[in-house]
Amino acid sequence: MKSITWILALTMMLSCHLAGAAAHQHIRVQTSYYEISREAFAKMLKGNQTEQPYQKVRKLVQSGQAALFHVSLLTCRPGESTRAASILEVIYPTEYSPPELCHLGSIGGRTSLGNDPLFSKPIDKTPTAFETRNVGASLEIMATLMKDGQHIKLMLEQELVSHPRNRLYLDFKDQFGNIRMSFPGFDSKQVDVTVTLTNKIPKLITAYTPHNKEGTPEPDRKIIVFAKATIVSP
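The structure assignment produced for this chain is given below.
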């Protein structure tokens, strides 16, 4: 009976020790974006299945067939939500006052419908409403250490936003000058996923088809994303 009691006490002490150790651990999460050709991406998926995709893409980087596009890193305590961002606020007009091509006027008893430069009025381009878009990178994570101490449940949300172009909305010219109205075009890459990761082993989580500066998809290129979680001491 004493032996059983001693074993139970030892088990409880060991459990408390492990729980305390886990409470003091941190989890470092890294996301890596790689640019790769569609052909190389297809070969990577169909190749040696015993080799991890991350090992394959690193070989492609060394041979010049792939390039590192973006890296984010964030460390958190298990079970806590953490966020980091590096952004530029782009404020742009979305609405303008109503346009006027011409208007009635009178000088010295003479009335004009707008053909006379004295009465003509250019299109009004006074902004009346604005919108803000964050350009840059943001990463939000919540990582939970599983009971075996080697696997991590990761909830990850990341967005990369760039401003590669402006779209011309109006180009108007008259005797008063030239009026050009344009709106920004944004390129956004988003991922919102929950995955289980093994400590220190990257996992392929998604792939994108990027767009060029004109906004046209480029199917011959791919952006692939890896996530890695590493258990670290504080």
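Interim note for the steering committee: Residues 2-23 form the longest helix (22 residues). Confidence is low (pLDDT under 50) at residues 6-10, 12-19.
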